[in-house]
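<goal> How does this chain fold?
<body> The protein record starts here
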Amino acid sequence: KDRSVFFTSKGREVKDGGGIEADYKVEAPQASALEVTLLRSGVVGDFAAQWSRTHELTKNFEVDDDTYHEFQAFVQEKQKTGDIQLEALYNGAITDLRRILKLSGYKDAARELDGLKASILRDVQRDFDKYRKDIKEDIAQGILARYLPESMLIERSLKTDKQVLAAAKLVRNTHQFDTLLAQGSDQEHGMESNIEGSTLNSAAREEEGAKFRVIW
C-alpha cells in the first residue's frame, strides 16, 4: 500500500501509517546462536546463583577470565547431563531432515546427520571465544541482578549499549546533528520560492489583464 507523504513546516518528509521513523539509524547488535541458547536455557541465572554462594561481590565487579572459565566448565557439565543442549537451535531442523530422509529410504544420509550435529556443536562451542565479550556481559548482568535493583542494571547497560552510544556521539557532533535536522530545508526554500513565484506570476497576470481591459 502506498503511503501518503506530508511535509513539516521545515520541509522534512513524513509518511503516514508507519509511525515515527528514525533520522539516524543504528542497527541493534545481533546475538549469536550460543548466546541465545544460553539465555533461553536459564543457565546464566543458574551459574549466577552458584557464584553468589561462593564469592563476594566487589565494588568494581567485572567478569574476569577466571570467572568466564568457571562458567564454561559449568555449561559443559550441564551439556553432559543433558540439562542444556548448545545445539538446540538446530535440533528441530535436523530432526525434520532425519525424518524426511528415512521416509525416502536414504538411511546412509540419515546416519550422517549425527556427524553434522557433532560438527555444529563444535562450531557453537568455539563461539565461547568469538563472543566472549557479549557473554561476559550477560554473566555480569546475571550476577548483579542478585544484588542490584533493576534501575541500576538498566543504567549500567546503557553505558555499553551500541545505539545509545551512537546517539550520544551524534548529539556531541553539533555539525552532523544540525545537518541532519536541516534535511528538507532546501525543499522548504524551494516550496517558498514556488509560492512566491506563483504569487508574482498571478500578480503579473492580473496586471496584464488590467492593462488589457483598459486598452480594450
